[in-house]
Specification:
Length: about 150
């Protein structure tokens, strides 16, 4: 009976990276290390460049936008919470009646003093339960935010 011998197969780090990227839906994964002759660890897929502007999803309900009183309560509550994670310069919570694109409604746009402040807020807020929802966060173009081109 022939004995099975382990075979060393050349591994293309980019092929591995592409497979992982596809399987993980773009999540950042590090591939590399001392095994198999791979080069030192390197990011597989670049996460979007951190900016000073962070967008939060799954925190705004229809009833929060229904009237000025509920909207003001939401603004106050969110401002107090997100201000804990860095120097908040401004915040926008688009409403349909304010003329924003439908794609911007139910999102919270936060402008921090530095990308580092925004990254800290992302770390603290992303994945947190907010009522029945789980908060998601991503970075947004500082230029688009400044132009009020929210989406």
């Amino acid at each position: 009976v022939p004995m099975m011998q382990p075979q060393q197969t050349a591994v293309d780090p980019m092929q591995v990276a592409n497979l992982l990227d596809a399987a993980l839906g773009g999540a950042s994964v590090v591939v590399g290390g001392p095994m198999g002759g791979l080069p030192p660890a390197q990011p597989v897929s670049a996460t979007p460049q951190a900016t000073r502007v962070l967008v939060l999803l799954n925190m705004v309900m229809d009833e929060d936008l229904a009237n000025d009183e509920d909207y003001s309560m939401l603004v106050e509550e969110v401002h107090e919470e997100v201000g804990k994670y860095g120097k908040l310069l401004s915040m926008k919570i688009p409403r349909p009646q304010d003329g924003f694109a439908p794609s911007a409604v139910k999102k919270i746009f936060l402008e921090y003093a530095t990308p580092s402040d925004a990254m800290n807020a992302e770390t603290e807020l992303k994945g947190r339960a907010f009522g029945p929802n789980v908060v998601d966060a991503s970075y947004f173009s500082e230029d688009s935010y400044a132009r009020n081109a929210l989406s």
